[in-house]
């Protein structure tokens, strides 16, 4: 038995709750993972996992052992990385998931710079607004806007997105131009709803002007769960939308969107890089996160990097 392989297999079973999913993330088969865990239990003379036909639960002894195994594996990776860091560039496959608009407008156009700096890092880029299960899908990190609702994840606050309120000229010609944010609640206007995959509910928008503070709920006839579709709906004149300024820049320049309530401020949307609590921050992940922060700083003033 290779004890390191056995520890990695055990840790991944705990994290995924399944021998099958653990095998998938380790790119091996279920039989191999099962054998490694059984050999580890025999070696330790302790039951680490309760197995049923439906699920796998960790025992009390297994939970305590898991915490030590995670630290040990992280220390091992640190030791190997520190020995090679001076002579070798970061390398390997890095799986990242990012929102579709941010990928298309900011991240992907800048990737030639990233690959010029780190040619030995292979990026596997998932592009979606859906909630990603980092453990089950073996994703190293996700880049997400809005407050995180998964408290178990570790996260780095990398940017704040400045927001604005916009509508298409065709919509304003049809419905009239609202003079105040309160006008959006009078029944004449329509908002395009965005359903965050983490909450499943349409957003409530807050605006401030001096000492004034108000919330707008409005009336939705369309709700989407994808950023690109949300923008397309606004350009098509289907309603008023709340949009990160970096997404509105090009449509506004083309005359496809008009900003509203420019004397009101909206709370910026925080953006985080999140990763599993048990996943060691490898050198390749660390340089990617640092590069993302640098990239966000180049998008100012529409995107701000927290100090």
TrEMBL record:
GO terms for biological process: DNA-templated transcription. Belongs to the LysR transcriptional regulatory family. This is LysR family transcriptional regulator. Keywords: DNA-binding, Transcription, Transcription regulation. Residues 1-59 form the HTH lysR-type domain. One of its GO terms (molecular function) is sequence-specific DNA binding. It comes from Arenimonas terrae. It holds the Pfam family LysR_substrate. InterPro entries: LysR-type_TF_proteobact-type (IPR058163), LysR_HTH_N (IPR000847), LysR_subst-bd (IPR005119), WH-like_DNA-bd_sf (IPR036388), WH_DNA-bd_sf (IPR036390). Signal peptide: none annotated. PROSITE patterns: HTH_LYSR.
């Amino acid at each position: 038995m290779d004890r390191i392989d056995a520890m990695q297999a055990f840790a991944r079973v705990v994290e995924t709750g399944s021998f099958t999913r653990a095998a998938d993330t380790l790119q091996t088969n279920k039989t191999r993972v099962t054998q490694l865990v059984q050999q580890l239990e025999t070696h330790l003379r302790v039951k680490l996992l309760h197995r049923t036909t439906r699920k796998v639960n960790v025992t009390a002894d297994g939970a305590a052992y898991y915490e030590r195994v995670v630290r040990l594996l992280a220390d091992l990776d640190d030791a190997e990385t520190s020995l090679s860091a001076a002579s070798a560039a970061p390398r390997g496959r890095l799986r990242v998931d990012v929102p579709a608009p941010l990928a298309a407008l900011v991240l992907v156009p800048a990737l030639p710079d990233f690959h010029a700096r780190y040619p030995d890092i292979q990026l596997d880029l998932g592009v979606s607004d859906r909630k990603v299960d980092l453990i089950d899908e073996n994703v190293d990190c996700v880049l997400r806007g809005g407050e995180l609702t998964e408290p178990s994840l570790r996260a780095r606050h990398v940017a704040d997105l400045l927001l604005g309120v916009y509508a298409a000229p065709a919509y304003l010609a049809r419905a009239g131009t609202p003079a105040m944010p309160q006008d959006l609640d009078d029944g004449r206007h329509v908002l395009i709803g965005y359903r965050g995959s983490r909450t499943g509910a349409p957003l409530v928008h807050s605006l401030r002007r001096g000492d004034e503070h108000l919330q707008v709920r409005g009336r939705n006839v369309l709700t989407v769960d994808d950023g690109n579709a949300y923008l397309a709906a606004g350009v098509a004149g289907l309603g008023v939308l709340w949009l990160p300024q970096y997404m509105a820049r090009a449509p506004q320049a083309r005359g496809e969107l008009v900003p509203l309530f420019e004397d009101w401020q909206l709370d910026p949307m925080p953006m985080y890089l999140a990763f599993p609590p048990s996943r060691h921050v490898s050198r390749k992940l660390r340089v990617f996160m640092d590069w993302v922060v640098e990239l966000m700083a180049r998008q100012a003033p529409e995107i701000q990097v927290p100090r």
